[in-house]
Amino acid sequence: MENEFSPADVFVRSIRLWWVVVFFALIGGGIAFIVHGILPPVFSSRMSITTSINFAQTGNLTDEKQDQAINAAGNVILSSAVEDALLSQAAVEGIGIDRNTFESARFTDRMGYEWIIGVESKDPNTAAALTNVWGENALTILNGYLIHAIKAEALSKTLDNLEACFEEVGVTAPSSATCQSMGIMDIQYSIDQTSTLLSMEITGSHAIIPSMSFALDSKAEVATSPAYRNRNLMVMSGLMIGFIAGVLITQISFKKK
Length: 257
Prior knowledge:
Strand order of the largest sheet: 2-3-1-4
Radius of gyration: 31 Å
Shape: elongated
Number of strands: 4
Structural class: alpha+beta
């Protein structure tokens, strides 16, 4: 049948008029490159938040638990609490930005024990300022959650001692001074109170472990040149569109003959 589609024929025709395919591919890539150049320049600033774990305090941790701890820090960095603090400080400093704009402009990337954070903006000063505000507020909130984690650890040890006292008083005469000074009802009350406080501190820690520490490497610098974001992708897409257009043109030219 004359109208039957044949991939082999399409290939042969494209090869015979290869210069048409190449021409349209180059035209497509060139147009994409020009369009990218016309778009408003975007500047990017970044900084890193380093997380550390004191293994002398925790003992050996599996890779999975280390990842969980570092990812917990990343969750805090991207949390609404940090975002709210950032937007409030940005407003005080005269940086006009709303939540949706910030969320579309920010970016993060984890590299081992470091979290790379950054902001893109048409204004390089705004990008650097927002990145620094973000890092400072993230560090403050991370350290606040760390305090809750340390308190939770202390309360956990206290609860273990109280439960040991409870068992000791219930079975034999208490041997420790702490247990001797408390009756069984006092111990039960202390257990209940400590359990409640422990639950609150665990919630307040947001999965941060007490052996962690956090630090900012340095302040984000103002970018001196725009970021070429998506340029390669745009040019490649233009080349592909031009290539397909060239192939179609070769088929049309042959059908007319």
